[in-house]
Design a protein that fits this description.
alpha+beta, Fido-like_dom_sf, Fido_containing
């Protein structure tokens, strides 16, 4: 099929889907789980992530890490999945895409500040600091496998070019001169050509492209790892003004998701029975074999960890964060408990969360418990923000508490099984470990040259 035929077929499939809306909550949940798994795996694999699709499923569904795989690869998948959760809300609420929204999604995806190796203006290797949610402060050109340096917008050009991109986006939404797939592909390329962030631009481009498609009623275009070479080639061709290959790839991916959508609402199976299932079953078996003598933690044991360790520690941290808030233009705290069935229990007030948690959980096991604090526009440098995310991941037989902060590498602070009885000493020690990193992070903001 040529492009026009594909777009005609795609619109026909979309009309078939629209005729059957609204779909049941069960169908929607199954579809989103499938899209979310494929999206997390393929988008990160395109960027070199080493986790298999089975390992990706184990991580996002059960919090299980893959033995021998880089910790950063797990963080990249988890951060991307967090951004996809926010995307679902943006699409459902038809929230306009703005620079603020884009920076917020980037911050969710990257989580914190870290250093990477990159290419400088002269093609040499250098190290730069990645700041989540902030436009690049240094050139971020990319050296291709053929040794060619691919140039992107300079840091000084980036704010103006992003403003122009979003102005064009708003104008096209109003005038509707392009087919949505063509519009989404063009937006994707223009974003990549700017490369506004120090890292994560490819994954962000694919997320934003799909916000555009999904808000216009289309299924997401999930570009696959097996299409990586044609995809990269299509972006290079687009740099030269030839967008047909990129549009064709996006159309194929959108049509593939749309046909899966139709299959689901007509009662068909949407899970792939291939290498994914084999890998996942093997991974599951290895986990269960290693823990066959141990019963999985109960929901009551997980709740006890929340009530006796995490909430007291989070309260101590939250109280100290109140001293930081006046140094910024705005600050906000959220406490979030995520259950294994996907339910999120969110409260701005930690005390309120503690009060409602037993009833809200209703005997269901936990997946995560997090404290998230974000402060924007430092008093002496409005471009500087501060963020801390304290996360407890509940596993089958143990749990681990980590943190991500502005300017500080993520770290593991506490790991234990569920048999331990936690006291005030434990929660105080956990709070001290995290607050030590908070102090170091704030010092970097207040005294950047030290």
């Amino acid at each position: 099929m040529n492009l026009n035929e594909k777009l005609t077929k795609l619109d026909s499939v979309k009309a078939e889907i629209d005729a059957q809306r609204p779909i049941s909550a069960d169908q929607e949940q199954k579809l989103m789980q499938k899209f979310r798994l494929d999206w997390n795996y393929h988008s990160n694999a395109i960027e070199g992530n080493s986790l298999s699709i089975g390992e990706t499923a184990a991580l996002i569904s059960y919090g299980l890490t893959a033995k021998g795989k880089p910790f950063k690869d797990h963080l990249d998948i988890s951060g991307h999945d967090t951004a996809l959760s926010a995307l679902v809300d943006l699409v459902r609420n038809q929230e306009p895409l703005t620079e603020h929204v884009i920076r917020g999604l980037h911050e969710l995806m990257l989580g914190g500040t870290h250093d990477v190796s990159t290419v400088d203006d002269k093609g040499g290797r250098t190290t730069r600091t990645i700041r989540a949610g902030q436009y690049k402060s240094n050139p971020n050109h990319v050296q291709t496998e053929g040794g060619i340096v691919r140039q992107f917008a300079s840091p000084t050009e980036t704010p103006l070019m992003m403003a122009d991109l979003l102005a064009w986006y708003r104008q096209e939404l109003a005038e509707k001169t392009l087919h949505p797939v063509v519009f989404a592909a063009m937006f994707h390329h223009r974003f990549v050509a700017i490369h506004p962030f120090d890292d994560g631009n490819g994954r962000m481009a694919r997320i934003i492209m799909n916000i555009t498609l999904m808000q216009m009623g289309y299924s997401p275009a999930i570009l696959r790892i097996e299409d990586r070479n044609p995809y990269i080639s299509s972006l290079v061709q687009a740099d030269a003004g030839e967008l047909s290959s990129l549009i064709d790839l996006v159309a194929d991916a959108t049509l593939r998701s749309s046909e899966l959508f139709v299959k689901a609402i007509n009662g068909g199976a949407i899970d792939d029975l291939g290498d994914f299932d084999k890998q996942l079953l093997l991974l599951r078996q290895s986990v269960l074999d290693n823990n066959e003598a141990e019963s999985p933690a109960t929901a009551a044991e997980m709740l006890a960890v929340c009530e006796n360790l995490l909430i007291p520690a989070y309260r101590r941290i939250e109280q100290r964060l109140e001293h930081i808030a006046p140094m910024f233009a705005s600050a906000a705290t959220n406490s979030i408990a995520t259950l294994q069935d996907g339910t999120n229990i969110v409260q701005k007030d930690l005390g309120q969360l503690a009060a409602i948690l037993p009833a809200a959980a209703a005997g269901r096991p936990f997946l995560q418990m997090q404290l998230f604090f974000q402060a924007r526009a430092f008093a002496k440098n409005a471009k500087q923000d501060f963020m801390i995310q304290v996360m407890c991941n509940f596993g089958r037989n143990d749990f681990v508490v980590t943190s991500t902060l502005t300017g500080i590498q993520t770290g593991e602070h506490f790991k234990s099984d569920y048999a331990r009885v936690f006291t005030a000493v434990d929660s105080e020690q956990l709070a001290k470990l995290i607050l030590t990193d908070v102090l170091a992070s704030i010092n970097k903001i207040v005294r950047p040259n030290n």
